[in-house]
Design brief:
There is one protein chain. The protein is of the alpha+beta class. It is built from eleven helices and eleven strands. This is 3'-kinase.
Length: 266
Amino acid sequence: MFAPYLDRWSLISDGEPILTHSSRLLPVLWQDRPAMLKVATDKDERYGALLMQWWDGDGAAHVYAHEGDAVLLERATGKRSLLAMAMNGEDDEASRILCRTAARLHAPRQKPLPDPIPLTRWFRDLEPTAEKVGGTFADCSTVAKALLSDPLDVTILHGDIHHGNVLDFETRGWLAIDPKRLHGERGFDFANIFANEELPVITDPTRFRRQLAIVSMEARLEPKRLLQWIAAYSGLSAAWFLADANTPEVETALTVARLALCELEA
């Protein structure tokens, strides 16, 4: 899988392959620079490379080369991790960094958009689950419909902003990887900060309320609007987990959704 691109782009292997559910990655050297060769096995990953090119290194990793399923990316070599920060006393600062990175990605560009996917299409899996299961799913679906019918501050979106998708690029700062190429209200991109299943404290009500204040201030979002996006996004995540039979993740996502819904009712 990697061999044709190693030859074509004059790359030198610089580590062990990394396998994910949607791509195959290989650390490489390109013109003496650390880079990451990524070969997509999922169409969303292919579309994400187009968006990375569109950002042109502003808020996201540089794209050095792109052809078909393969993309050659600037590689993060910094030692810092937002997940480690969030779990070791720097949760607030990690959230602020995520917000600032998202804001850079949302900034207008004077060039055509790369054929993004509307949020209305992204949310199409929530309503059938809401109709079938009801309960919190139905509550989240109602909130999502209201948001999607009257969007504010529409822009290009990353679609998956979380602690593992914003990396330390040392002198270049914190930059995003792995976008989903969405288009819709910018508030959507801040909801996933509350929904990273790798962070054990996301279901802690005290932590939730603290991060709500921090993110709403840093992102310049009304707390109510942010809560609505958290509920909508968490319901959608739970629907996806339910379809994949990931029972623990379903309950985690629904717990976050209920936290948001309870705050909305307060």
